[in-house]
Amino acid sequence: MDWLNILMKASAKNKKVVHPLEPIYDEQSKVLILGSFPSVISRKDMMYYANKTNRFWSVMGALFKEEITDHVSFCHRHHLAIWDVIHSCTIEGSSDSSIKNVIPNDIAGLVKKTHIELIVTTGKKAAALYEQYIHLDLPHISLPSTSAANAKMSLEELIYEYRKIKEVL
């Protein structure tokens, strides 16, 4: 393989990607749940936590004791907002560990439009990015990732951790 092909493959793997999803929120939102950046599947399906192996929606359904058929109306009904810390970055696939060249979303601007009382980050990378780039004067809880990459935690353990969200609602 020649150097040109190697460079082309490297640049394709480290392509700048812009967050394609609008935040889910309304004026009544009280808890903002922030991930790091949407996975390849979420970007393709234009839905937060769209990967079938991600347990986010299963955790939320168990926490609120309901089957979730419409993610947006579920969030509005329970005063939840969902977004990600990152507006754009270079990333390889869906790998949080490959994230570089971060430009954050305007989290402060979204918070001003709502009644958000608590920021929740999902996973260590989202928490670190939030602390590095955003860090608002609001309570912040870092919760474990619901991704399949965090397979060491059972669904029951995740539900137990995520119950902290309901304490604010």
Gist of the model:
The protein is of the alpha/beta class and 169 residues long.
Describe this entry's structure for a reader.
- There is one protein chain.
- The chain has 169 residues and is of the alpha/beta class.
- The chain has a single domain (18-168), classed as Uracil-DNA Glycosylase, subunit E (3-Layer(aba) Sandwich).
- It is built from seven helices and seven strands.
- It has a four-stranded parallel β-sheet.
- Helix 6 links the parallel strand 6 (118-122) and strand 7.
Topology:
Layout: H1 3-13, E1 16-18, E2 31-35, H2 40-45, H3 56-63, H4 71-77, E3 80-84, E4 86-90, E5 100-104, H5 107-112, E6 118-122, H6 124-133, E7 140-143, H7 155-168
Parallel strand pairs: 2-3, 2-6, 6-7
Antiparallel strand pairs: 1-4, 4-5
Helix pairs in contact: 3-7
For this entry, give a set of tags.
169 residues, alpha/beta, Uracil-DNA Glycosylase, subunit E, 4-stranded parallel beta sheet, 3-stranded antiparallel beta sheet, globular, disordered N terminus
